Amino acid sequence: MERISNIYFVPTPIGNMKDITLRALEVLEKSDIIYCEDTRNSLNLLKFHNINTKLVSYHKFNESERVEEIISNIEDGKIVSVISDAGMPIINDPGFVILQEVIKRDISYEILPGACALINGICGSGFDSTSFVYMGFVPKTDSERKKYFQSFKNMKVTGIFYESPHRLLKTLKYIYTLFGNINVCVCRELTKLFEEYKRGNLEEVISYYSEKGVKGEIVLIIEKISDEKVDIDIKKEILKLKDDGYSNKDIVKMLKNSFNISKNEAYELVLNLENEEEK
């Protein structure tokens, strides 16, 4: 006997339009309303699969406002589905707010299985997947990132992160200053024509994308960080930071935070290196 729910959370393809289950298509077709992030994007998916269900926008800017409307439609007996632009709703996408309200009101709901970029990423990385943690999007500020990555290191598991292509290199270089030449895998354009899994230590991966450039959606996988300290050539690191355009003041601050040395020691390292280069 088929289970009947009042609202469905339906995963959609993360790149390839065919990566959607038969049941998901069936649910979307029988739904009276589909709430989606971007009606234009979702319309392409529905047209591809010959589905004509009504679409209503539901995104992070109106998520809370739509709650009562969605509940009202459910109470009127309508079948409602929630989708995101790509992948599983709720995970870094709209859906969490309405799910909490549905649970609070004891309304029947169902989460359908399907495409999810973080799962493809951890499986394709080749790293240990017996225990891992999903950390979401990498914070933008250095102070937040240091706490964020340090908390991950303390978990002693494989880590999954989302990052934008224009910040990837900066993030990889920052991780290098914290943990040294550890192993990572950059999963790019998953399920699409130019899908890529680039594995290697940080120096290799940074060099690769510095030459090639970075485009497309990114899932970053970091191999579990061991307790053994990875040696870093501080002089080499200073030169890298200089090449990236950081000022001496910024470099001193980063050295102080990353290598647990005093401000004076950091200044001395930077000045000594400059003197060596002038000779």
Strand residues, percent: 15-25%
* Proportion in helices: 40-55%
- Alpha carbon gap, first and last residue: 82 Å
Q: Structural class of the helix and strand makeup?
A: alpha/beta
Unreliable segments of 5+ consecutive residues:
none
Query: How many helix segments?
Result: 11
Major sheet, described briefly?
A: 5 strands, parallel
Radius of gyration, whole Å: 23 Å
CATH superfamily of the largest domain: Tetrapyrrole methylase, N-terminal domain
Compute the average pLDDT.
Answer: 90
- According to DSSP, the number of beta strands is 10
Characterise this structure:
Helices cover 45% and strands 16% of the residues. The protein is of the alpha/beta class and 279 residues long. The chain folds into three domains: 7-111, 3-Layer(aba) Sandwich (Cobalt-precorrin-4 Transmethylase, domain 1), CATH 3.40.1010; 123-222, 2-Layer Sandwich (Methyltransferase, Cobalt-precorrin-4 Transmethylase, Domain 2); 234-278, no CATH class. Strands 3-2-4-1-5 form a five-stranded parallel sheet, with helices on both faces. A five-stranded mixed sheet has the order 6-7-10-8-9, with helices on both faces. Strand 6 (132-137), helix 6 (142-155) and strand 7 (158-163) form a beta-alpha-beta unit. The protein starts with 6 loop residues before the first strand and ends with a helix.
